[in-house]
UniProtKB/TrEMBL annotation, chains A, B:
It comes from Cobetia marina (Deleya marina). The gene is fghA. Coiled coil: none annotated. Serine hydrolase involved in the detoxification of formaldehyde. Belongs to the esterase D family. This is S-formylglutathione hydrolase.
Length: 287, 287
């Protein structure tokens, strides 16, 4: 903790007996000011609670999940903190940053960019796996040894790669409608070519399907992946491609629970419908 | 049902096993096109289900409650339909309609305006108590004899007056942070003088505290009012004034449950925290 580290409280709301708070801070890894949200369940008043990281999808901020998923009810019951980072650096004024919904602002893809001009700021992987966890552990009553991770769409894939790249770090990982194989879909190709350049061999370290192929044989490296997918998801065939993750997990004998839910789409209503089951799943590993 | 009555589906999302649908229709009472939202729980596939009307607050549309309150989970468990009207006529191009957040668009106050130019369109009371219920009963698998009503802030007051003005109509009524005595607060004075003119005797038929005074002695007229109020609500003292409702109910021996919740504010996080208890309360009367 540096002497100058400051957390500025942006808002505070009591929810289900706990507190949802949003803070602004200076991010060193992203070189800009960032806002994140943390929900501390009532149990946090008695002592450290385990953490569930939530990574949101394209166009979102730290707010969408906290407002729309209804997760606080079950989190308060179980005694789990929820933490939502934003989805990209903000206000860094790179050319074209705000031109499209699926690249730049709101679309950081949880990678470390290597291509200019993005490389200086777009390091969301470092931010969500290192800088922000360290900050949260310093400032809040959380148990630094008990973390799980989940997310939606771009953030569902983010959760998968964070877990796959850090065997043993997260107690459990789940994903709602993840972009399962970004190297093979328009959203991922646009993001990876923009942030990482044209060398597709560099992309492989940021793609869940490739990371499953590269995973070692330790128990930690073979961590179960829990994926929820709506069958009426408007992005299912072109962008999400869970069948590719399913195939590579089968081929590699990597544990995967892939649930396909008839009638559900890509919206927060889908997440709201199954978030309790995911929280219960994570609780089994966290509590 | 007129031969020309049309419902245009705006969106449909599966949520907790049921369906949330939004429809556009031509409103005769408001003389404009309106959108409303209805959540039909899974039980509606087997037969008619009871209805809970939800009236939202200032600046809201039919969407806020459905996206942020997390009510569908419990509604699906109980088998209750949720119906959210919009909060005012839309697109009627009256001068000044969009100038402020607390009058005109998004601020219909659930009254029938008598003052020009508002009187032609701003008849939200007729819309939410007559036109829309009749339409919903014609088109959806709901039990027309089993209705309850609730709402938030401006809509919490709306729910109270709909029930008080129609003894026996609603099986139960509840309100979150209602504007309890609009004749005696800035929001209400602005709305009532704008929609109803300067004669305060006319206002009394639209004010919950006044309606409690006017209520008859029948059991139906003495229906219990269930009010939830956050103690950290930023509008509590200047606008909401639940103590006035409490005083008049005590004076009139009108049944009131007023719960004050420490730490909670005026946001949807407050509603999300207690909506399950309100749905359970209404279910006791509806099921």
């Amino acid at each position: 903790m540096t002497a100058t580290e400051q957390l500025e409280l942006v808002s505070a709301n009591k929810v289900h007996g706990g507190w949802l708070k949003r803070y602004r801070h200076r991010s060193g890894s992203l070189d800009c000011d960032m806002v994140f949200a943390i929900y501390l369940p009532p149990q946090a008043e008695q002592g450290p609670v385990p953490m569930l990281w939530w990574l949101s999808g394209l166009t979102c901020t730290d707010e969408n999940f906290m407002q729309k998923a209804g997760a606080q009810r079950k989190a308060a019951e179980l005694g789990i903190a929820l933490i939502c980072p934003d989805t990209s650096p903000r206000g860094v004024d790179l050319p074209g940053e705000d031109d499209s919904y699926d690249f730049g602002s709101g679309a950081g893809f949880y990678v470390n960019a290597t291509r200019e001009p993005w490389a200086r700021h777009y390091r969301m992987y470092d931010y969500v796996t290192e800088e922000l966890p360290a900050l949260v552990k310093r400032h809040f009553p959380v148990d630094g040894e008990r973390e799980s991770i989940s997310g939606h769409s771009m953030g569902g894939h983010g959760a998968l790669i964070c877990a796959l790249k850090n065997p043993g770090r997260y107690r459990s990982v789940s994903a709602f409608a993840p972009i399962a194989n970004p190297m093979a879909c328009p959203w991922g190709e646009k993001a990876f070519s923009g942030y990482l350049g044209d060398d597709r061999t560099q992309w492989a370290q940021w793609d869940a399907c490739e990371l499953v192929k590269q995973a070692g044989n330790s128990g930690a490296a073979r961590q179960e992946l829990f994926v929820e997918q709506g069958e009426n998801d408007q992005f299912l065939e072109e962008q999400l491609k869970p069948e590719r993750l399913e195939a590579v997990c089968a081929e590699q004998d990597h544990p995967l629970i892939l649930r396909r839910q008839p009638g559900y789409d890509h919206s927060y209503f889908f997440m709201a419908s199954f978030i309790d089951e995911h929280l219960t799943y994570h609780a089994k590993h966290l509590l």
